[in-house]
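Input chain follows. Return structure tokens only.
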Amino acid sequence: TPDRYVNLNDYLPRDSFDYIFDGVPTLLYPKDGYTEKAYAILKEVPHIKVWKKNEIPEKYIYGSNPRIGDLFVMPDIGTYLDFRPESRPRLAATHGYDNFAPEMEAIFYAAGPSFRQHVELPVMANVNLYQIIARLLDIKPAPNDGDSLVVNALFR
């Protein structure tokens, strides 16, 4: 709904950033000297949460990657977030919200000769899919944030 639309352009000057990856989550790369000011402004914006790179909750598995922006912005579930020159509500759907929120839970089924039968895991992070696919293709995965203990529990 329009009341759950946040355009960061309404709060921040777009030219104060070297790069912006908008979407869910939004990653901001402020120009030198602008991080603290942008952070303070974003803390006051409704329907979002913002963290500095070193504050990102571990559950998101983002904070240690060198490609992550200095500011990490996560909208509340149901809020559409972007950073566009025009400020008109975009009524759209997207993905990338907090995958530990009950509203975002999905089902993952795996079947076939490589998988153990009747294995149930309470929650599995999406980053594990890369390791699962690499194992099925019998290729060595590049370094990643997946949990090999979780992946190993699925396989025979």
